[in-house]
Write a structure and sequence with these properties.
One of its GO terms (molecular function) is oxidoreductase activity. Belongs to the nitroreductase family. InterPro entries: NfsB-like (IPR033878), Nitroreductase (IPR029479), Nitroreductase-like (IPR000415). Keywords: NADP, Oxidoreductase. This is NAD(P)H-dependent oxidoreductase. The chain has 210 residues and is of the alpha+beta class. The protein has a domain of 143 residues: NADH Oxidase. The protein is 49% helix and 14% strand. It is built from 10 helices and 4 strands, in the order H-H-E-H-H-E-H-H-H-E-H-H-E-H. Strands 1-2-4-3 form a 4-stranded antiparallel beta sheet, sandwiched between helices. The radius of gyration is 19 Å and the shape is globular.
């Protein structure tokens, strides 16, 4: 646990990346697996994670992300995109996955499936979008922790035009909506932010024990 805390103290929201340094395929797969294993409501994972490597596309995305150089200089760009039309089909796929993975007859899971369908159907559109977006932030947290364990830098980012991201990445045609993004790679020696002391609330300010 001490190593985990040391690594979380080491990480910071990197402002300037070394564009010459790339993440190895092994480390990239570790980060992807950490994201895949993320918790989500019911385990449904109502989102996709798009990894953008193409430099031309990343240049376009930078233009609609306020010119932030992390978009183009990092090794990889992760875009978490929620399923706009999450509903019965997604639940059916999930139930089939449970059935196959655990060797449980799908009929035995019908009640669980119906409960999920009822919950989702009962959500107004705005509430549904908020719910699915929350799930992507849980996955983002796993990305940040996994990257820190690997001593890979990462920057969670909300400063981008989601509608323009959707157009550039073709999300509109896929029924997806960009929720949050993260860049990963290696800090540049000229990034002064890496030398700043981490500022967080104290235990006394943050925690309440009842």
């Amino acid at each position: 646990m001490s190593t985990l805390l040391d690594n979380l103290n080491w990480r910071y929201a990197t402002k300037k990346y070394d564009a010459a340094k790339k993440i190895s395929a092994t480390d990239l797969n570790t980060i992807k697996e950490a994201i895949r294993l993320s918790a989500s409501s019911y385990g449904l994972q109502p989102y996709k994670v798009v990894i953008v490597e193409n430099p031309e596309i990343r240049e376009q995305l930078k233009e609609v992300a306020y010119g932030q150089t992390q978009i183009t200089d990092s090794s990889h760009l992760f875009v978490f995109a929620t399923d706009v039309n999450v509903g019965d089909s997604a639940v059916n796929d999930y139930i089939n996955n449970i059935s196959e993975t655990r060797g449980v007859p799908a009929d035995a899971l019908a009640g669980f499936g119906d409960m999920m369908k009822g919950m989702i159907a009962g959500l107004p559109s705005d509430a549904k979008n908020t719910w699915t977006a929350k799930q992507t932030y849980i996955a983002l947290g796993n990305l940040l922790s996994a990257a820190a364990e690997l001593k890979i830098d990462a920057t969670p980012m909300e400063g981008f035009n989601a509608a323009e991201f959707n157009k550039i990445l073709g999300f509109d045609k896929l029924g997806l909506n960009a929720s949050v993004i993260a860049t990963v790679g290696y800090r540049h020696g000229e990034d002064d932010t890496q030398h700043y002391k981490k500022v967080r609330k104290s235990h006394e300010e943050l925690f309440i024990t009842i």
